[in-house]
Every structure is written in C-alpha cells, then in structure tokens.
Design a protein that fits this description.
- With 406 residues, the protein is α+β, with helices and mostly antiparallel strands.
- It folds into three domains: 7-183, no CATH class; 188-295, Zinc Finger, Delta Prime, domain 3 (Up-down Bundle), CATH 1.20.272; 302-405, Arc Repressor Mutant, subunit A, CATH 1.10.10.
- Helix content is 59%, strand content 9%.
- Helix 6 (138-150) packs parallel to helix 10 and helix 8 (186-202) runs antiparallel to helix 9 (207-221).
- It is elongated, with a radius of gyration of 26 Å.
- The two termini are 45 Å apart.
C-alpha cells in the first residue's frame, strides 16, 4: 500500500528527515516560483550582482516532462539537488542545499575567489557562506532522497540522477557529462545494490537475514573502518532514514514508524563513543523488523488494519464498539461482524488483549504503580483491571510486578 499523499503534503516529513540527517536547507517551490534565491541563500546574486536562477529554472520547468532528479554543480563549487515534479500542471520542485562534498580550507577558498574573480573586499561574507555549508556524501544523499520520494511517488525508484553545471557566463543549465559518468559508474550501482538488498530483506520482517544483508552494506561503505564518531553518526542517521522511508511503503501506520525513527535519532545524537554505535544498526534492524512482523498485517482488509491501529494508538482512551464505529463512520454491527470474520475474535476481546499487552510493557520498562498502569491502558476501575490482568496473564498485577522486579 502506497501513501497517497501529494508531494506538497509529504514535503514537511521529507524536509525534516533530510534536515535531521544532513543538516541542510530543504525548500518546496510552486507557482509563481517566488523567492528562488532561497536555493543558494542568495549567494549567486550577491557575488554576480544579478538574478541568475529564476529565468532558467522556470524555463526548465516549462520544458521538462515527468520526474527528474538533478545534481546542480555551481562554478562557485557548491551543490544543490533538485527534484522536479512535472507530471501535472502546475509543476513543482524541491531543492536541497546548498552543500559541499568536501570540507572547506583557506587554501581552497582562495582558489574559489581567484577562479571566479570574487572581490577580496567580500572575503568575510564569502568565507562565512562556505564554512556554513554542510559537507555531505553525495551518494548517501541521493539514495536517501530517492527512498523518501519513492514512498510518496513510486516512480522515483527508477529515476537516474542527472548532473548539470551552472555558471555566471552560461546563466543556464548544461550537462556535466564527466560528473554524470562518475555517478552512474560501478560504485553507485554497487552501493544501490547492497542497500536495496538490505531494505528488501527488512520488509520480510526476518531480523537475522536483515542483519546479514545490513552487515554487507555497512562493510561496503566502510562503516566501522577507521571509525570517526561524526562520520558514523551521519551514516547511521542515513540508514535510519532509509529504513523508515522504506517501511512507509507498507501497511504499517506512519505513527509507529516515526516513533521508532525519532527514538533512534535521539540514541544516535546522544552517543558519545564509537563503540556504542557499532551495535546500534543491528538493534535498529531488530526493532524495524518487529514493526514489520507486528503491524504490517497484510492478511487483513484496510478497514480492519485501521481499526487495529486505532486501538493501539488510543489505548488509554475510551474504546468501545460504538466509539470506534462512529470514528470510522461504519455501522457497529457491520464493523463487529467484519472484525470477527477476519481475526477470529471479537473487537472487545482484541481491545482487552491489547490493553493487557501494553500493561505488561509498562511493568517491564517503568516503575509505574499498578494504579498508574491501569489508568494508562484506559481502565480506571482497579478491581476490574486486576481481574482482567489475571485472566489474560495468569497472575495478578501485583504478583507480576513483583516477579519482574525480583
């Protein structure tokens, strides 16, 4: 099941993912394509003293058809990645960047100033611009973006990135065949092959096989070779985005995917040693595999999957057949019959089971009292909660809590 959101609706999610992992600017543009200077923070206009972006971009939008992914290399030696959506009018596009693919040094800054005849009087502003740009691995970025876009526009799975140059003299986009060739060579093909093999295995929910294919991918990109904490964090953040965006192609509710994504994002950010990050990708695989096993539910209809997800997401609230039927605008009798037909149990039984499983997780992972746990799973009658817990688990809540803590 694909997420049937327009790219404009999906953009906030895409922007947050790219910004979190790569620390770069991401912008959405639609007609009348105003404020295009955001693409390069107005830098070209500052140094070349004219509007260099609006005319060629709008002209390009008029000529392009279908979907395109461009790597735009400026003669000023920074990059943007632009995704064009020219399938239906009005055409729109997303811009990532500016960014660089290598760290800036004073020597290299002098070379940029000299080759582009930039005024020395502007050195402070120019230096501030270049040193503020994120340094990004181009292959990682392109693969991450394609996986994110493919979750909402499946055609982007097959789009080949095109690389073009942009200079002051041309004031237009021209193919950069040397760079195109470098991006379409064996390195990128192997990278994509290892990554896609891992992600396809992840969708099976088999954590052991997924860990094996992930290891092959990590070995290929040198994840633990001469480890640097910052480099490992960037690579692991990229893997986190790849996993979460690929799971968006499944029946799993996006809320569960995002909860997992942000949990790992926080763990990566807070890691202070390389050793901590060495095992984290495999923990990531295990948790994402569990999501696939527990929440993909391909054997159920769209309605029943949504009811199950609703119960899980609203476990602390009032959950009755009438409440849920009203939410989905269905007749209660029809909903009850359909749920029982597909799952073999009543909706009431399913709700009770989910509440008890959630209670167990609270007892296993928190220091909440029995009364607090009962309230957090939507049962405010302490006696009823205790009876229900013993019926499903075989022990009273107090006995289970004591067993877990002993």
């Amino acid at each position: 099941m694909q997420n049937r959101k327009s790219i404009k609706e999906a953009f906030p999610f895409i922007r947050q993912m790219i910004s979190d992992v790569y620390g770069m600017d991401v912008h959405f543009f639609g007609e009348p394509y105003g404020d295009l200077n955001k693409i390069d923070r107005g830098f070209r206009q500052t140094v070349w003293k004219k509007d260099n972006l609006h005319a060629p971009l709008v002209k390009g939008l008029e000529l392009l058809e279908g979907y395109h992914l461009f790597v735009v290399k400026s003669n000023l030696d920074f990059y943007n990645v632009i995704a064009f959506f020219c399938k239906q009018k009005p055409n729109v596009f997303i811009s990532l960047g500016p960014f660089r693919n290598r760290p800036m040094t004073e020597q290299y800054l002098s070379r940029i100033l000299s080759s582009n005849r930039l005024p020395v009087s502007h050195l402070m502003v120019i230096r501030q611009f270049y040193y503020s740009l994120p340094v990004v691995d181009m292959q990682n970025l392109l693969m991450t973006l394609q996986h994110l876009l493919s979750a909402f526009v499946p055609e982007f799975q097959h789009i080949v990135p095109e690389t073009i140059s942009f200079s002051e003299e041309q004031n237009t986009f021209q193919p950069d065949y040397e760079t195109v060739q470098s991006f379409s060579g064996n390195t990128l093909e192997n990278y994509a092959s290892y990554l896609n093999h891992f992600l396809e295995t992840l969708l099976t929910g088999n954590s052991q096989q997924s860990s094996d294919t992930l290891k092959r991918f990590l070995d290929y990109i040198g994840y633990d070779a001469n480890p640097s904490l910052n480099r490992m964090k960037k690579l692991l953040n990229a893997v986190n985005v790849h996993c979460s965006s690929r799971l968006l192609l499944t029946q799993i509710h996006p809320t569960f995917i995002l909860e997992q994504y942000f949990r790992f994002e926080m763990q990566i950010e807070n890691a202070g040693q390389c050793d901590v990050l060495l095992q984290l990708p495999y923990e990531m695989v295990r948790k994402y595999s569990l999501l696939v096993k527990n929440y993909s539910m391909p054997e159920y209809s769209y309605l029943v999957r949504n009811v199950m997800n609703y119960v899980t997401l609203h476990i602390s609230e009032k959950l009755t057949l009438s409440v849920i039927a009203a939410y989905f605008q269905k007749n209660p009798s029809y909903l009850s019959e359909q749920f029982h037909k597909e799952t073999g149990e009543s909706l009431t039984e399913f709700i009770q089971k989910e509440r008890m499983q959630t209670a167990i997780r609270y007892f296993n992972t928190t220091n909440m009292s029995v009364a607090e746990v009962a309230g957090n799973v939507g049962i405010h009658d302490f006696g009823y909660f205790s009876r229900l817990f013993k019926k499903h688990i075989g022990r009273t809540p107090s006995q289970y809590k004591k067993m877990v803590k002993s």
